[in-house]
Amino acid sequence: MIGIVGGTFDPVHNGHICPVYRLSKDIPFDRVLYVLSARPPHRTTPAASIHHRYRMLELALEPYPLFEANDQEIYRSGPSFTIWTLRRLRQQYEDHSLCLILGLDAYLGIHKWHRWPDIAAMANIIVLTRPGWKFADGIDGGDARQICVRGSGVVMFWGSLEMPIASTDIRRCIGMGEDMGGQMPSAVLNYIHENNIYGANSP
Length: 203
What we know:
- This protein is α/β, with parallel strands linked by helices.
- It contains eight helices and six strands, in the order E-H-E-H-E-H-E-H-H-E-H-E-H-H.
- Helix 2 (50-61) packs antiparallel against helix 8 and helix 3 (82-92) runs parallel beside helix 5 (116-122).
- The longest helix is centred in the N-terminal third of the chain and has 12 residues, at 50-61.
- The chain is globular.
- The mean pLDDT is 86.
């Protein structure tokens, strides 16, 4: 089973990694791909360049043998639509099921995604929910066994740990010279300062 985590990672932080690491203890992934959204169609242009964002992602994932940075959207022209990414990964991993890992906010807005009904037809979806989040009537948490058996069409809600970290706040705090220790991997923070990203070394 191939887990897929997409994002602009501008910058990558512990909130992107720790919940998925815990999830990987419950779900037997063969690997988890962190796919850099090079040109997000529904968001403003990222502050850091594609090169910097991908290098930060590589550094953040180095301690996790199961996790891997994926650059396919960097070399594909046009907007980074999830459906095209899944189609390419289906070709690469034809003997594995695909499992798209989303935060709750992303899942609640999935109806706005390009060709979103096709996404569930191509992959299972695991939604990382907030602590204390209650399921609506008629919705249960899903079954991890179904995720493992079925190749697509299963939506599972998995209770995630509370990590109120946002890339927007990190960029602002770095620009103000505030200490971001504990919010992101030290290798990423060092890279940001070495390359003066987000105004890290500005007066």
